[in-house]
Amino acid sequence: MFDFFRKHTRILQFLLVLVIFPSFVFVGIQGYSGFNNDQNAIVATVDGRKITRPEWDNAQRDQIERARRQMPNLDAKVFDTPEMKRQSLDAVVRERVMLAAVDKLHLVTTDDRLTRLFATDPQFAFLRNPDGSVNKEALAAQGMSSEVFAQRLRQDLSLRQVVVGLGGSVIAPVSATASALDAMFQQREVQVQRFATKDMLDKVNPTDADIEKFYKDPANAKQFEAPEQAGIEYVVLDLAALKGGVTVSDKDLRDYYATNEKRYTSPEERRASHILIKAEKDAPAADRAKAKAKAEALLTEVKKNPAAFADLARKNSEDPGSAEKGGDLDFFGRGAMVKQFEDAAFGLKPDETSGVVESDFGFHIIKVTAVRGGEKRPFDSVRAEIENEVKTQLAQKRFSEVAVEFTNMVYEQPDSLKPAVDKFKLELRTAQNVTRSGVPGAAGALANPKFIEALFGNDALRNKRNTEAVEVAPSTMVSGRIVKYEAAHQLPLADVKARVRERLVTVQAAAMARKLGEARLAELRAAPATALADAAQTVSRVQPKDLNGPLLDAVLKAPAATVPAIVGADLGDAGYAVARIVKVLGRDPMVADASRAQTQYAQAWGDAESQAYYAALKTRFKVEIKPGALVAVEPAANAASGSGK
Known about the structure:
The protein is α+β, with helices and mostly antiparallel strands.
C-alpha cells in the first residue's frame, strides 16, 4: 500500500499541507538558543493573538521531518541556518494571518461543498471506496481518521478562499508581458574584454604586515577558523548488544533444528526426459483419444527397447524445446512442472519410465535419468547458524521492552551514560572532532543526521547532558553526550599563514584587475565606437555562452535605446570584464513555446498580487515579530560558544 502512496506524490503533498499546518499552530517543543528559557516566550503576535516559542520550534521540527521523509539521507545542517528558521516562523505567521482573515471575512466551507469536492475531485480518487465512501485504511496510513481529514480539508479550503480569487483573476497587460519576455529571452550581440585575476597573480607580493593586517580584519576572520567541534561519548543499543546477554540451551537448539528440518535439507531435484504428444485440454474428445493412443503405442516401443528412448523422443515428441535433445529437460525441482508431470517424475527412481501421463498439454512418457539433493545437513554443521538465529529472534522480542527502559534511563539520569552501560552491558564508545556535519567517513550513529542534531541541541550542548534516545536504524537506538566542546575560533596566524597569503594574493590581484577594467570601461564610454579585439557573439539568458552571471546580467540589463553601449561587470575573485553591446536582436528562437511563457508570466503577476494582498492583511491584523525572536534565529553554536570546553 505504501508503494501506492509513493506514486501519488502530488496528492500526498496536498495531504501533508492539511496535516502539518495545524500542527504548526497547536504543538510545541523546546526552544532555540539565543532566546530566554521561558517556554511561554512570545515570538510574534497576529491580530492580538500570541505565537509562542514552542509553536515556532515545532514548525521548525516539522519542516525537518517532512524533508527527511522525502530524502532520508538529507543533512539536517541545511536547516540550521537563520534563513530556514525564519522561514518556519514566517509559515506560522502566515497561517495565523490566513486564519484571522477567514474569521473576519466569514469564509466558511459548507458540508455540501466538502462532500461534493471529495466525491468529484480526481486527486481524492484513491481515498474513495467504490461506493464513494472514505477509504479509512488509506487515511489511517497518513495518521488520520475520516473526521480529522474532513476537518483539515474544510480548513484548507477556507484558507484558500482568502487569496485564490485574487491570484486567479489577474490579467497581465500585453505591454508589460512583452517587456518582461523581452528581458528574459532577448538576444544581444556583444564583444567582451576580460581582465582576469589569474593574469595579475605574479604582479602582487604582499608583505608580512599586509598578511597580518588581512588576518586580523574581522571581515576575514571566518575564513581562517577551526570549526566548532566536540568530543563525545555514546552508547548503541541494538540486537548485537542484546544478543550478548542471551543464552540458549542445547535442547532448545535441537528442538529448533527438528521443527525447521526442511530448511536444513537441500531441495530434491529430478532430471528427466519426456516424449510429448500434444492434446490441449479443451480439444475434442476424439482428438485427445487419438493422441493418447499414439502415446500408448510409443510407450510400448519404449518398454521393448528402453535404450531407444532418446531416438523416439527426437522423432516423435511434439515438445520443440526438448525433442532435439532427446527429450531431456535437465534438472528441476518441485513447483517447476505442472502437478501431474511433477507427481509422476518425483515418484520414479533413476532409469525408471512412467506410464502415459495426462496433463493440460497432452500425454507424456517420462523417464527419470538422475536424482540429486534431499540430503539433510547434520545438526553439528548448522549449530552455530541456529544459535545465532535463535538469539537474534529472542533479542528482537526483548528489544522493544529494553528500548523503553533505555530511553527512560538516559533521560532520567542525564548526567552520565554509565547507568545504561552497566544495566544493559553496553560498550561506551567515544569519538573526537565531531562537528554538526558528523564525522567524515563515519558510518552508523556518527553518520546519522538525527543523532548529530541531538548532540548539538541546546540541552546537550550547553549542559552536557545525555541526548534523547535516537532511533538511527531498525532496532538500533543511540544516546550520546558531549564531554568536551570547542567553539569555532580563529586559528593562530602561524598555522594558517600560507592560506592567508594565498587568499590575500587573490584579493589584491582581483583588485588590480578591477582597477584596470574600470579604467578601460571609462575609455570605451568616452569612445563607444571603438571595437574590441574579440569577435562579437550572440548571447541570451537561454544561451549565455561563456558569460557568467554578473557579466550576463550587466549585458542584458543595459538600456537598449542606443547602441553600441558599454557596460562593466565585477566578477569577484575572477576579475573584471568590459562588454560592448553591438546589436539588440529579437527573442531567442530556442524559446519554443512563447504562449506558455506568457501564461507563466501572468501566473507570476497573480502571485505578486496575492503577496501584496497578504502584506496588506499583515498590516490589517497587526503582525509583530518580537525583537528577541530575531536573535533566536542564530545557530545554537553562537549561543553556546561561551560555554567553553
